Amino acid sequence: MTTDTITARTVVFHELGDADVLTIEDLELPEPGSREVRIRVEALGLNRAEALFRAGTYYYPPTLPGSRLGYESSGVVEAIGADVTEFAVGDKVLTGPNIEMSSAGVYAERVVLSVDSVVPRPEGLDAVTGAATWLTYSTAYGGLLETGGLRPGDHVLITAASSGVGIAALQTAARIGAIPIAVTRTGEKRQHLIDNGAAHVIASADTDVVAETRRITNGAGAQVVFDAVGGPGLAELSTAATHNGTIVVYGWLDHRPMAMPMNWPLRMYGYANMELAATAEGRRRVNHWIASGIRDGVFRPHVGAVFDGLDSIRDAHRLMESGTHTGKIVVEL
């Protein structure tokens, strides 16, 4: 007995470079093996990590030629392999954790993934909104609460606040009763940030971030600084933290070397989301946190732009790298 070969249009790249290196090819899909599922992808959520990976500046390099791309998607389970008990055919799911992009990137019409890379889609989320949810809110949860130890009443300074993770961090901090201070380049997005939980907004282009943070906190400084930028500016940014405060760096938008902060005592963490997502227990906590926030209406994943189909992936990447959008960019299939 023979079965039809299943293929899927898939985004790949054969050399490092800008968005122009991305191509679409028909790749053959294997049947799901033990502890694997096949997913029909409905929407893709773009992350800056993928632009870095494509350019060869991510923390691990792509395997070339023929590297795949992408962490985050929403879709429906089409088939399951042996020993899969977590999911059934027809389940609505999200992807994100435990993906090595070269071999398992999700920019495709269909993907076969380990069950450790798949989580249930919370009730009430459509495919497009779902694709903007898991990585942003899991990063905010893990970085602010599990690593940063953010508590009710704490001031938290959030850089790159208009990004997908930034919006999730504002909503996460507000949900536990902390006081989010959003940092954005200009004041154009001020009202949007306030609508998403910011108690204060600092436009870094025309305001001294450290001085304004000190003013807002009556001279004490923020208990937690949640930073996506890094680079040499981190040393100065750290002086916005309170005595014995905490710095959590989860991104490196500035690729230059970081200078060591000297305003000790200070706790400084480099947050890696994959550590939390690596265990079933970590994923369980994240999933419950996200689902409960969606259910009570505090978490409102913000989709800044929606592109139509895989053929738009280059344009979607160009917008992501322009930095002119707010929230998450999604490609709907």
From TrEMBL:
Keyword ATP-binding among record annotations: no
InterPro entries: ADH-like_C, ADH-like_N, ER, GroES-like_sf, NAD(P)-bd_dom_sf, Zinc-ADH_QOR/CCCR
GO molecular function list: oxidoreductase activity
Residue stretches making up the Enoyl reductase (ER) domain: 17-331
CDD domains: MDR2
UniProt cross-references to SUPFAM superfamilies, sorted A to Z: GroES-like, NAD(P)-binding Rossmann-fold domains
Keywords in alphabetical order: NADP
Pfam families for the chain: ADH_N (PF08240), ADH_zinc_N (PF00107)
Name of protein: Zinc-binding dehydrogenase
